[in-house]
Amino acid sequence: MAILCLLHQAYGKKLIGAIREGLPDEDIREWPEAGNPDDIEICMIFRMSPGFLAPYKNLKLISATGAGVDHYLLDPEFPRHLPLVRVVDESFAARMADYVLSWVMFHHRDIAHYLDAQKRREWAFKVMRPASEVTIGVMGLGQMGALTAKRLASLGYDVRGWARTPHEIDGVECFAGEAGFGSFLTKTEILINLLPLTPETRGILSSGTFDRMPKGGVLISAGRGGHMVEADIIAALNDGQLRAATIDAFQKEPVPQDHPFWDTSGLYVTPHCSSTASLETIVDSFAGNVRRFRAGEPLLNIVDYAQGY
């Protein structure tokens, strides 16, 4: 039986080559050269159109190429009776924290002000607030969110965190559930979204959230496009409830050329680049689970469909 791979092209042919080296005894096929659909027992998929998996009647295992799996679960034909595994990279969280810290400092130190002033050839001095006076709220306190919150706290920021369930993180004031959401937002000046996308978190980046923050706040979202109510983000930026936003993941990618996000003042678009698993981790994680599957052993990093991650 064969393995079919539909992979991210960021690594070119290096990734499929490394998978073949890591699993030398397997029949590895790269889409679109799938061959007989009945041969396919395992699929490793980056992104797929709805119904992509339907032809593979003998499929027994599906693997994501990264940590996020919400886009797979949007497919109404996704075979939820089969195990879905994801890639968990220990350094993935560190790279995400690097991304968030870069943009926190950009917005805290108001780098946009100086860039605009340079264009005008203007010597535009500003007094900066110390980090201890800036309250940052991190939504999502899993592997990525917890590390990000700890790093921000270590730099002296006033950090608070919010998640579905209670957490304890040194140096971080933690809130949980709907009951704690309003209190979490009340003082949050820079809101960081690192939540998984679930039915409960879909659309959470909306006017109902922004209006509970101090006026002139900042949004940094490296979660999922489905978290956003796009019109509410644009409205909040236009009316000053938000002074700036950095967004890395979108409902449609690449962002269409005519999308208003490109031209909205104070909005910074990055091309879903906040963090990626390393080539080595992708291969090691996938190959390890294939070996476990062949040996009838428990799989690693298996997705809980009820939780959505």
Automatic annotation (TrEMBL):
It comes from the Bacteria. The keyword Oxidoreductase applies. Keywords: NAD, Oxidoreductase. Residues 104-274 form the D-isomer specific 2-hydroxyacid dehydrogenase NAD-binding domain. GO terms for molecular function: NAD binding; oxidoreductase activity. InterPro entries: D-isomer_DH_NAD-bd, NAD(P)-bd_dom_sf. The keyword Lipoprotein does not apply. This is Glyoxylate/hydroxypyruvate reductase A. It comes from Aliidongia dinghuensis.
